[in-house]
Amino acid sequence: MVKKKFIVFLFLFINFFGICYSETEPYSKLENDIAKNLRCLICQGQSIYDSNSEFALSMRIYIKDKIDRGHSKDQIYNMLVKKYGQWIVYDPGYSKKTFLLWFIPILFFLLGGAIIYLRIYKSKKI
After folding, report:
1. How far apart are CA 21 and CA 11, in angstroms?
2. Dihedral of CA 48/54/55/59: which sign?
3. Is 31:67 a contact under the CB 8 Å cutoff?
């Protein structure tokens, strides 16, 4: 009789903490990863993951809905970029439109290195 009570208690205890744990984390890892990479259009300095604005909350619901319907991460990003523009994504990726965004820092780095090299080379010649 004691074993039955203990087993029932253990079963209820595990289920109770399983329910509490699932309620504290309403979003999956994929939903959180997507939300961290999207800019809140209301806050503009925060990601959707960090923001509590109505826009951010509706975007979290939108992301969850799209994941539940079987859309991939890239499909969700593509839909949001089409609707809100490339600015909504923190990591825009490589494309013809973002080529200069990725190329200019490399160009400045190489140009700065060339200037430093030439100054050192000229100072050694004198």
Report:
1. 15
2. positive
3. yes
Nearest one of 69, 73, 90, 91 to 31, comparing CA atoms: 73
Residue 37 one-letter amino acid: N
pLDDT, tens only, 32-57:
999 999 998 888 788 999 988 999 99
Express each pLDDT in 56-80 by its tens digit.
Answer: 999 999 999 999 999 999 999 999 9
87-94 LR contacts (CB < 8 Å, sep 24+): 87/39, 88/38, 88/39, 88/41, 89/37, 89/38, 89/39, 90/36, 90/37, 90/38, 90/39, 90/47, 91/37
DSSP 109: H
Tokens representing residue 85 in the block: 């523009």
Q: What is the pTM of this model?
A: 0.57
H or E stretch covering 51? none
Q: What is the CA radius of gyration of the chain?
A: 26
